[in-house]
Write a structure and sequence with these properties.
Helices cover about 25% and strands about 25% of the residues. It is an alpha/beta fold. An 8-stranded parallel barrel has the order 1-4-5-6-7-9-10-11, surrounded by 4 helices. The radius of gyration is 16 Å and the shape is globular. Pathway: Amino-acid biosynthesis. It comes from Methylomonas koyamae.
């Protein structure tokens, strides 16, 4: 099981999710037990002090909501941490930043007006769901041949919540598409949740709150 820390960017700072309601997202400091600041570089450093993570997921919330961009901050992270890989979701069909070896685009279905072919490329697909409803063009669900190898199952209403991941959805996806590498996103609370995900064949999970509140410790991560 690979744990991928989440960096949500809003108004120049890293924010902590709250039940998927982006209007309620607030800077991670002082909410976080591991961060002493909310600047992106400081938060990545805090995560690395907890565990030797190799991959991070970044959601540029301003870009996703079409009210700005964190392009400069993202490029600075890529330059500062050249040995890390950053998955970038900026709401577009491709990231609006220059291609770099340690940046990979994430295409989220909630932001796309129509489905298009991502197979064979470097992009990661995020299948976005909210209240048990698939978001975006229905073609993303119908044309599964468009899917790349790595697919995030993002349950937005569970992000930053305490209800646990949507194991039923993830199990169904895993059974129907055994050749895809699914990444759980939304609701992971602790090590037990990660165990349950592993039991149904999920190989990775995006996590933020459980790292910030101490429910997932460095020792937990070493023993996964």
């Amino acid at each position: 099981m690979q744990v991928i820390p989440v960096i949500d960017l809003k108004d120049g700072e890293v924010v902590l999710a709250a039940g998927g309601d982006r209007s309620r997202y607030r800077p991670v400091h002082p909410q976080s037990s591991i961060c002493e600041a909310s600047e992106p570089i400081a938060v990545v450093e805090a995560f690395l002090n907890l565990h030797a993570f190799t991959t991070f997921y970044i959601a540029d919330l301003d870009a996703i909501e079409a009210r700005g961009s964190h392009r400069r901050e993202i490029l600075k992270l890529a330059e500062t941490f050249p040995d890390l890989t950053f998955w970038i979701d900026d709401g577009g069909p491709a990231v609006a930043i220059p291609s770099r070896g340690n940046l990979r685009p994430v295409v989220g279905t909630e932001s796309q007006r129509q489905a298009f072919d991502l197979s064979g490329g470097s992009a990661i697909l995020s299948l976005d769901f909210k209240h048990q409803r698939a978001l975006g063009d229905p073609g993303w669900q119908r044309f599964t041949n468009y899917w790349p190898e790595t697919v995030i199952a993002m349950t937005l209403d569970k992000v930053g919540g305490h209800g646990g991941p949507d194991c039923a959805l993830l199990s169904e996806l895993q059974i129907r598409h055994p050749n895809r590498c699914f990444v759980a996103a939304g609701g992971v609370r602790n090590r037990d949740d990660l165990r349950r995900l592993a039991e149904i064949g999920v190989r990775a999970a995006l996590v933020a709150s459980a790292l910030h509140n101490g429910a997932l410790t460095g020792k937990d991560l070493e023993n996964l």
